[in-house]
Design a protein that fits this description.
Layout: H1 3-6, E1 10-17, E2 22-28, H2 30-37, H3 44-50, H4 60-69, H5 81-84, H6 93-96, E3 111-113, E4 145-147, E5 169-172, E6 177-179, H7 182-191, E7 200-207, H8 209-221, H9 225-230
Antiparallel strand pairs: 1-2, 1-7, 2-5, 3-4, 5-6
Length: 244
């Protein structure tokens, strides 16, 4: 695997008001927007794990530490990482944890029914289970005959992510999003009541793992995320964050 593949980069095009030193909004393609929307699919336990060493608002850090330190004799779980490092598919993890197995396709579930040879299931078994060998509630025969489960074909089969492309989207400083259009951009400029348009400048920024962690942390604490991460001086040394 190449270095580029290990540390992928995405781009945002920022519109910055140099007078107030803030990001008014950003233009994002499908990949960058998929990354931001993917925050919503990251389990809270994994967020705390990714931001280990940083203060997270509220009590999540406390409950996380409690589970870390709880003696195994009190746990029903065979692996406490189910809570400490939970896994769900999220496009964001491609940057936050490039080597994460979170996006691996889980093995398909297997379903079973009885053989349908005994009364009252003869020729018409009505129960199925995902636990092979369970007794059929009707005929009491073991449910070991495997069945094929057919899913409805997905319209976007083979495509990943959450939004359609190739479309440009507007991302506000608080990470609210909308489709990009000339009218919407003009309306936003009017909303900001800018007096000197010559103070506006475009800035294209790239972000990889380090900046992705900054975006994740800022999204939990701030309503000026893009400004905090790409314009303002960083408030924390993000290199101290645990990313493995």
């Amino acid at each position: 695997m190449t270095t580029q593949e290990k540390d992928p980069k995405l781009q945002l095009k920022l519109l910055v008001d140099q007078h107030s030193n803030r990001v008014l909004f950003a233009e994002a393609g499908k990949e960058a927007l998929d990354f931001l929307l993917g925050f919503l699919r990251i389990p809270l336990g994994l967020v705390v794990h990714l931001l280990t060493g940083e203060q997270i608002p509220g009590s999540l850090t406390s409950i996380y530490s409690s589970i870390q330190n709880l003696d195994e004799s009190y746990l029903m779980l065979s692996d406490r990482d189910v809570l400490l490092k939970p896994r769900l598919p999220s496009v964001s993890l491609l940057l936050l944890e490039p080597d994460s197995p979170a996006l691996a396709t889980p093995p398909p579930k297997r379903y079973y029914r009885c053989s349908g040879t005994n009364h009252p299931c003869r020729g018409n078994p009505i129960y199925m289970t995902n636990v092979g060998g369970m007794p059929c509630p009707n005929c009491r025969l073991p449910m070991v005959t495997e069945m094929a489960f057919l899913e409805k074909p997905k319209a976007d089969s083979g495509k990943s992510g959450y939004v359609k492309g190739p479309i440009t989207y507007l991302v506000m400083d608080d990470l609210s999003v909308m489709p990009m259009s000339t009218i919407s951009a003009i309306a936003l400029l009017k909303k900001f009541q800018l007096k000197d348009l010559s103070m506006l400048c475009e800035m294209t920024v790239e972000f990889g793992k380090k900046e992705s962690l900054e975006l994740l942390k800022a999204s939990l604490q701030s309503t000026t995320v893009l400004t905090d991460v790409f314009i303002s001086k960083p408030r924390v040394d993000i290199d101290r964050l645990q990313t493995t």
